[in-house]
Known about the structure:
alpha+beta; 2 domains; 24% helix
Amino acid sequence: MEDQIGNDEKVDLALIRAEHQKKFQVMIDFVKERVGNGIEYKNSIVRIVVSEVGAFCELSDLPEEFTGVVSEHVERRFVAPSEAIDVLERTVQAVQETAPDGTRKCSILALYTRRGLVDRKNCFVLDIRRDDDEEQRPATRIGALQPGVMPLFYKIRADADWAPRVLGFSGGLVLCMANTGDRNLLVRVPYEGDQVVNLADAQASINIQ
């Protein structure tokens, strides 16, 4: 089937998985333990777990592509596809319309099909970072946003001047997963309060070909 991952691509993902395990597995296990069992949501591409003390997500074909936050401020709701798409598109528009120093960090990963992991035609990746003592690095951009199309999964990590207007926080994490039907899971976790762990600062995957 068109949306399946080929054998050669599975080998590439296995190599990426081994590299990630060396670097991040201890941290991933720690966040999973702190978040706990929670409520699990899944589709063909992603698994999201949400509890009262945090949230994390991992991709089905590459669990080491992981994002997690331990925080007491977790919002979970179900939204229509139009609202989910609007959040994503407004974020991209805000990045494009804002002066570079107004975006300290913004990382977007949107996967439109399962093959989005290995095929840039089915994904959109944008990663912008500016360290406190350094100039802003060149943005990483892979694939293209598909206007009006609901991805199977997207995540947004932002710390920016425009974020309160667009995302409802100055810095935080958004996870969105397409469900069967007319409601999609939307999780928001602001980086505020007595937050313990934020495993959302690793650069978005740039291994998509």
